Amino acid sequence: MIGCTYGSFFQVTVAGGSYQEGLVTHIQGVPSGIPVLEEEIYFDLLQRKPGQGELSSPRREPDIPVIYTGLNAADTMTGFHNEGYTNGTPLTILIPNLDRHFEHIEQYRATNRTPRPGHASYASYQKYGQWDDSIGAGIFSGRYTATIVAAGTVAKKILLDHGVEIFAFVREAAGVAMEDIDYDTIRDRVAAFKKVRRDMDPVYNLVYREGRITPGMRFVEKISVLAEIEKMVPDIKRKPLTEKETAALAEQGLHPVLNCPHLESARSMYDKIIAVRDSGDSSGGIVEVVARGVPAGIGEPVFSKLDGELGRMMSIGTVKAVEIGAGVSVKNMTGSQSNDQMFMKNGKVSFSSNNSGGITGGLSTGQDIVARLAIKPTPTIAKPQKTIDKVALSDAELAAVTRRDPTIVSRVWPVAEAFMAIVILDQMIINIAHQEMRKKYDR
Predict the structure, then answer these.
(1) Is the pTM of the predicted complex or chain greater than 0.90?
(2) Which of 49, 212, 230, 336 could link 63 by a cystine bridge, Cβ 3.0 to 4.6 Å?
(3) At the topology level of CATH, where does 5-441 sit?
């Protein structure tokens, strides 16, 4: 299988499947000298993982990452303090599957001849035949997005050291659109939401706060811990919030399970998602992702334009459209309305608007880079659907019996953050190399 690698200088390759032993992220191009902790990677992984409430599948994968290669195992010389820092070799992150049980595999086996409409199961069978990894949809499952999030954690860490921050949130869900608020408020509430998720997460407390896995442990020691946690998975549950805790979150403008930074909008979204779920159906929405601090001139002409590269976020499962800035609404604008007119302010270039989403000619302008992702409804629903028997090539009917998400919107935003970070970091490294080589010829 090709197609599982992205990037030129910061190159990410992913592998694994929903019901294989686990997932793998392999990153080439990570600069040496960066401290990377598994706890940091888990902080991002827990934002997208399932089993965290009514808006996600009940599958309770802990998603505990194990860094396998790319870090110094100990201080390399007397007087050096480089244990746990990247050493320039490929960084490999393993994410074992710990919540895959035989009864769930049987459910997939019972329905795999009748592909879910809207899912990849028919097309992947046509491509790979009887060898198709169709248990849990294999690499076509949304589970594979954990690999992107893991790589994105590393990319975001490097970008932040260079003044670039990235945040994403739910802009629309189940037909309910968020009221507009400023990006400073959104950034702060997204950061607060992430910390709340961490503090509420029982796996974080079990593994990291209680010190079951610590930096410096050997791989075999970590795997031994994971084997014990696998036995505990059925009983690891997040405690429901008390009224007092819910009220405290509301005072911060936070919804307990939906990362929409406008609380009243989030409540309306949640109610609508649940109503659609209770009818046996699913819903979609819009995720918005923003990068701040990207310098002007990032991107390459023609086939590697920055907005074109960000369009690769279509690679995220369930994403059916990506728009930059004003996106499709530019069709109703005039040139004078669409153009982001420029002026000087305190010796710096400023813009009257950001309809371009921070990108013109495929190059960053120095403004916020803004992208919105259209997320389709979850294909797996609790309503009968017409399908076929893909082996016998006869008509059939399918009623979903597997575990499912009533919406994917609430879990895509961490993936969008990660994917944007991977793209922007790769393009920034290319640009820095170009600029450094050019300096010799500058007059």
Answers:
(1) yes
(2) 49
(3) Chorismate synthase, AroC fold (3.60.150)
